[in-house]
Amino acid sequence: MASSAAAPPPLKQLLLFFLLLLSFVARIPVSSPAAAAAEPVLPEESLPARSGYLPVSPTSGSAIFYAFYEAQRPTTTPSQTPLLIWLQGGPGCSSMTGNFYELGPWRVSSVAHNAERLVVEPNPGAWNRLFGLLFLDNPIGVGFSVAASPEEIPRDQFTVAKHLFAAITAFVELDGAFKSRPIYVTGESYAGKYVPAIGYYTLKWNAELPPSQRLNLAGVAIGNGLTDPVTQVATHAVNAYFSGLINERQKSELEKAQGEAVKLTEMGNWSQATAARTGVLRLLQNMTGLATLYDFTRKVPYNTQWVTRLLQQPEAKRALKANESIVFDECSDAVGAVLHDDVMKSVKYMVEHLVENSRVLLYQGHSDLRDGVVSVEAWVKTMRWGGIDEFLSAERKVWRVNGALAGYVQRSGSLSQAVVLGAGHLVPTDQPLSAQVMIEDWVLEKGLFADSKEDERPTRRHRLAI
């Protein structure tokens, strides 16, 4: 028979069970709505080193919003660390999309199985690994930027460039070390016009200014850019046809619509030409039934609306030092409408000037049907540049990142072109590592972007060791 001392009295047993239960519950991570709400929208470590507003004119209240992230692992002194400037497209879209969805140090996404909850996480493909990275909401009226009046919103690339020059000049004056840093202006899509515009404007103004007032422009990079629209709009039919997305009858119908857009552009009927191009893209969308023309491999469109949801939160605005009265949207219909007549105007001559006096990178995601490889190569062939024949006859080299096929690179002199496989319109989103390697090697003139073949092998060994 067992002794009565072998079993605890009922009260002690209940107390012991209760204490064990408390211990177990204390180990469970808290995931209640109240606890989730207590987490910061933007963790402190995700915030920019500097952010706020840069004036575009001494006589106006209009200003460009900026967010600056310093290099995470620079290999040069602060005064010589390259500075990348990112401009979004549209026209009228915010560079905060590039910041929080593409190439910034932290990217937004939704929590698995909970599309309503957003999180921001470190981006292993961030472009500020080795370089400083400056995002500008351009033109005024876009994103968090402020247009003092609708009349001040730019209607052409000259005014866009004038505002950008003033804003960038104001930024480099914030810190004496910024002045000597080499500047590379980058961007995608409609920034295929913004980037050449500010680059061209800078080179022209630098020639008139004393050295102390010049911007240290070292090069420009354009991703999937709309640069010479009259040439590019004529490529959609052949591109879609040879990609197997439309048949020959549809190709003929699309070519007819393209011809109308070209005709209106050549007549200088800018508004109708823009409408005609929109009609071409709508027709192509209807013919293919694709989720998005920005990437014909995608089953769903890009989730850029996450950026809007993130930055509409008051806490996020305060953390970024943005004007809290602004209702953030990823793209501004008002700015897009003002620039409507600018859409079909070419800036190819600006690129020609830049490639003569600077360095130029043109890169495209292979799966983009709007401003992709065929579209860009069509206008590049028509460039008036002393080195164009050498570029067109240059070898198109197979490009690998960490041993895996990443795409193709063609370069000659100051012009480089990169095709990124597995990517659409938003290259850094689709292929973050390839995009990071591309921009770093191009800026530093390494790998396939180097002058000599001898430099390629050490770069690849270095990449594998990282």
What is the CATH topology assignment of the largest domain? Rossmann fold
Q: What's the CATH class of the largest domain, please?
A: Alpha Beta
Order of helices and strands: HHEEEHEEEHEHEHHHHHHHHEHHEEEHHH
Give the CA-CA distance, first to last residue: 70 Å
Residue fraction in strands? 15-25%
Strand line-up in the sheet with most strands? 1-2-6-3-7-8-9-12-11-10
What's the CATH H-level homologous superfamily of the largest domain? Alpha/Beta hydrolase fold, catalytic domain
How many discrete domains?
2
What is the gyration radius calculated from CA atoms?
26 Å
**Strand pairing plus helix content: what structural class?**
alpha/beta
Share of helix, binned: 25-40%
| Mean pLDDT over the full residue set | 89
Outline the secondary-structure elements.
Blueprint: H1 10-26, H2 33-38, E1 50-55, E2 63-69, E3 83-87, H3 96-103, E4 106-111, E5 114-122, E6 132-136, H4 157-172, E7 183-188, H5 191-206, E8 217-223, H6 229-232, H7 236-242, H8 248-266, H9 270-288, H10 305-311, H11 314-320, H12 333-338, H13 348-357, E9 360-365, H14 373-380, H15 388-393, E10 396-401, E11 404-412, E12 415-420, H16 427-430, H17 432-444, H18 456-465
Parallel strand pairs: 3-6, 3-7, 7-8, 8-9, 9-12
Antiparallel strand pairs: 1-2, 2-6, 4-5, 10-11, 11-12
Helix pairs in contact: 4-5, 5-13, 7-8, 8-9
Family: Belongs to the peptidase S10 family.
GO molecular function: serine-type carboxypeptidase activity
Main location: secreted
